[in-house]
Amino acid sequence: MSTSEPAGTVRWLSPDEERAWRAFLRVVVAVQAGTARDLATVGLSEPDYEVLSTLSERPGHTSSLGEQADKMGWSRSRLSRHASRMEARGLLRRTPDPSDGRGCFLVLTTEGRAALENAAPAHVESVRRHFIDRLAAADLIAIEQIARKLEDPRPGDDRPRA
């Protein structure tokens, strides 16, 4: 608790709220760490998988760098650096955006498609082991409902959503 703020201006968490918050943080870290470890065994990171799976679902297996960055909640420069590393590994290629001289499109390569197809079974099993299979159907429904509430921007919050 900070003593530098006037009394009554900070809505401190109650013990129940703090326990819920900390439990949420622990579970996010644990699930992400487990799935990241499992993806690493097939040579991909979670961001690699996110980019490849998104591209595989898009028409022409193509997405603008800006759209992909927004989807991932990343800055364009961060994704650009990551895309450069993926391009060096042959997983995707970049093509210029004729309507935006500074922009580009990310395009899934044959090698990227093969890497995704190789990783997908292990990734799905990992998601099941670390998340899905540990919960009842009603839990999954509740988590989806909660996630939708948390995804919706608050009034006046114009930040892009992932």
Question: What does this protein look like?
Answer:
- A three-stranded antiparallel beta sheet has the order 1-3-2.
- The protein has helices spanning 15-40, 46-57, 65-72, 76-88, 110-130, 137-151, and strands at 62-64, 92-97, 100-108.
- It has 162 residues and is mostly helical.
- It has a domain at 41-139: Arc Repressor Mutant, subunit A, CATH 1.10.10.10.
- Helix 1 (15-40) packs across helix 5 (110-130).
Taking all residues together, what is the mean pLDDT? 91
The spatial strand order of the largest sheet comes to: 1-3-2
CATH architecture tag of the domain at 41-139 = Orthogonal Bundle
Rg over C-alpha atoms, rounded to the nearest angstrom: 20 Å
Order of helices and strands: HHEHHEEHH
CATH level 4 superfamily of the domain at 41-139: Winged helix-like DNA-binding domain superfamily/Winged helix DNA-binding domain
Shape: globular
Quaternary structure annotation = single chain
- Given as residue ranges, the uncertain stretches (5+ residues, pLDDT < 50) are none
Helix proportion of residues, in percent? Answer: 55-70%
Structural class: mainly alpha
- By DSSP, the count of extended strands is 3
CATH class wording of the domain at 41-139? Mainly Alpha
Named CATH topology of the domain at 41-139? Arc Repressor Mutant, subunit A
What percent strand?
5-15%
Distance between the termini: 31 Å
